[in-house]
Amino acid sequence: MTLPVLYAVEHGVATITLNRPHEMNSLDTATKVALRDRALDAAADRAVRAVLLTGSGRAFCVGQDLKEHAEALAGDDADLGATVHEHYIPIASTLATMDKPVVAAVNGIAAGAGAAFAFACDLRIVASGAGFNLAFAGIGLSCDSGSSWTLPRLVGWARARELLLLPRTVPADEALELGLATEVVPDADVLGRATELAEQLAAGPTVAYGAIRRALSYSATHELTDALSLEAELMRLTGATDDHHGAVSAFLAKQRPTFHGR
Question: Over the chain, what HEC string results?
Fold first, then answer.
């Protein structure tokens, strides 16, 4: 039996690969459960210091499996609120908030929840032939998986409204201009480049990376005084780490620091 999501850990990087290439990595129930559980595994594993999310085949992820959804609609068993709470919220939340950096290798089209999952990552390495589509309104739905939160913070409120109300495929080059892509590379290079960045992050100060993620998320919804207070708390936390002490010693010795993630 082919697993809908592949999971491997190497060099401190947990690679999570959506593995339904013939269905463009659409999210049926089994895939949503597996993706949620593997993301939680990566977040909890102290040996994992960075995460790489990608898809197999020609798509990154086109969002909800509409064939499965149509069957549920026909059987009057399509409570989208249930799957949002059970699957989409924990997936997006885990990707966005785990205390380690997350890189998306967007190997092909990322649509709907698939685009939102990529936006929840810290860095998006995008294949030149890939693109993003906030396809929710095209099938008569609102947006989910954190896209109402991440998208305006990436591209601004006005452009976020445009992309959600008038969904279209944003090609890679435009995605780079808008801030949806961190870097655009040839299709054949996307996984290699994303892996290179993930391994670079995995060799870095993991506690500091997690603190930076927390600080950025917190500052998005709090006043300056509150953000300053959290920054002080996180500086106290990271200032006590072995990585910080070792890096200062290395700097004074004019050596390159070695980080151990603690």
Answer: CCCCEEEEEECCEEEEEECCHHHCCCECHHHHHHHHHHHHHHHHCCCCCEEEEEECCCEEECCECHHHHHHHHHCCCCCHHHHHHHHHHHHHHHHHHCCCCEEEEECCEEECHHHHHHHCCCEEEEECCCEEECCHHHHCCCCCCCHHHHHHHHHCHHHHHHHHHCCCEEEHHHHHHHCCCCEEECHHHHHHHHHHHHHHHHCCCHHHHHHHHHHHHHHCCCCHHHHHHHHHHHHHHHHCCHHHHHHHHHHHCCCCCCCCCC
Note the pLDDT tens digit of each residue in 185-234.
999 999 999 999 999 999 999 999 999 999 999 999 999 999 999 999 99
pLDDT bin (cut points 50, 70, 90) of residue 62 is very high
**This model's pTM is above 0.70:** yes
- State residue 77's pLDDT score: 63
Q: Which of 238, 233, 107, 96 is nearest to 181 (CA)?
A: 107
For residues 165-172, give the mean pLDDT. Answer: 98
The CATH number fitting domain 5-202, selected from 3.10.20.90, 3.90.79.10, 3.90.226.10, 3.30.559.30 = 3.90.226.10
Question: What are the residue ranges spanned by the domains of the chain?
Answer: 5-202, 206-252
Pair 50, 102: CB distance under 8 Å: yes
